[in-house]
Amino acid sequence: MQEKQHGKRPNVVFLIADDHRGEALGAFGNTIVQTPILDGLANSGVSFKHTHIFGGLNGAVCAPSRACVNTGKSIFHTLTGEDLSKCDQTFDIRPDVKLMPQTMREAGYCTHAIGKWHNDKPSFARSFEGGDKLFFYGMSSHTKVPVQDFDPTGAYPKEREYIEETFSTELFTDAAVQFVESYDDERPFYLYVAYTAPHDPRTAPEPYAAMYQRDQIPLPPNFMKEHPFDNGEMSVRDENLASLPRDADEVRQHIADYYAMITHMDAEIGRIVEALQAKGIYENTLIVYTADHGLSIGQHGLMGKQNLYEHSIRIPLIMSGPGLPQGKPIEELSSNIDIFPTVAAICDVELSEKTDGVSLLPLAAGECDTVRDVVCSVYKDIQRMATDGQWKLIRYYRSPISDTGTDCVQLFNLRDDPWETTDLSSRADCAEPMEWLTAALENWMREMSDFLG
């Protein structure tokens, strides 16, 4: 365990990827994708292997997920909207809600942002005192990235944008390395680096693009040519990125391109680690790595993240730094709303208001066996999920808004069936977990102010 320097709070490097599912890491069990840097951080810190996203009320799941990460709160308590039952929720974080970087700033940290901010500009402005290569959209070409320099006024009008042609992952890493190398403030810093990888278009530069050959990529055990029923979101943009019915070779190529993007990003993160080491501050820096959500890429016949299967709602979460044990994998449940209170606890920063999330530090320190008996997720008005780690319930609804979806339930035993291939909802001997998870989901929905609760 790295010791905190006496009387000094650690620096924080907070890294968040776009579309990186929890399974697609060597340290999380994937034997194909190469992620030596992230695996090294897991080996020197704590890896939370069952972290799920809270979810979202629109197809751009990244925006609500980032709001959850940065506020530690339910999307029903965080984002604005006139009538949530119509899924008209915006990407804007309520002005009275405190964010993680805002809280760190008020606690004396120098807060600096690089890369993607998919929520509103006022919430960004009150959170950061500096920044570089700021991207205020959901996606773009990785070699034509519309960015802005830091704007002290907080306005960020579109006319300030300029196009960067350096590959996005390298562009954002260059800015992060420059910040670390030039930092000379006595205050600890909170550096927020938000990548747009491995989001499509998945066009990794060489030599990474050639690292994974289609013919050497195995299909996932839950590959399907088509999803077996209408889940309410069968024609969203992401589902049109590959032909229907799904072609095995086409899916293999998508996976190869996905892994290439991840390995390239992993190598670039290594440059940030090297900069911290060269600066002599690595030992007193908390490094956090996570993602906004996962991705299907052929699993269950789907391509996108607009569903509540494990491939889409489980994310990587690694924390390495002073005060944390080394090489500790944690199998217990956690949620992305737990990240903010955990970072605050590690940095000894007091939360100025209550969060829906809970600190995972007691779990990491071995002071408790679990912090959550159940974790739940939402998607629009058509899907809800609850899991206790072994059993998982997905409740589907017919949407009155879009007139899509199917009124049905799926139940999986994740311990025996981690790829969610066998629906046990109709089995009489599975009635007990069905009843328990149904009740747990209904209670959670009421607590989180879910309009379906």
UniProtKB/TrEMBL annotation:
Position of the signal peptide: none
Keyword vocabulary terms for this entry: Calcium, Hydrolase, Metal-binding, Signal
Sulfatase N-terminal domain sequence ranges: 10-346
Cofactor(s) listed in the protein's UniProt record: Ca(2+)
InterPro entries xref list: Alkaline_phosphatase_core_sf, Sulfatase, Sulfatase_CS, Sulfatase_N
Gene3D superfamilies to which the protein is assigned, alphabetical: Alkaline Phosphatase, subunit A
PANTHER family: ARYLSULFATASE FAMILY MEMBER, ARYLSULFATASE G
Similarity comment: Belongs to the sulfatase family.
Record protein name field: Sulfatase-like hydrolase/transferase
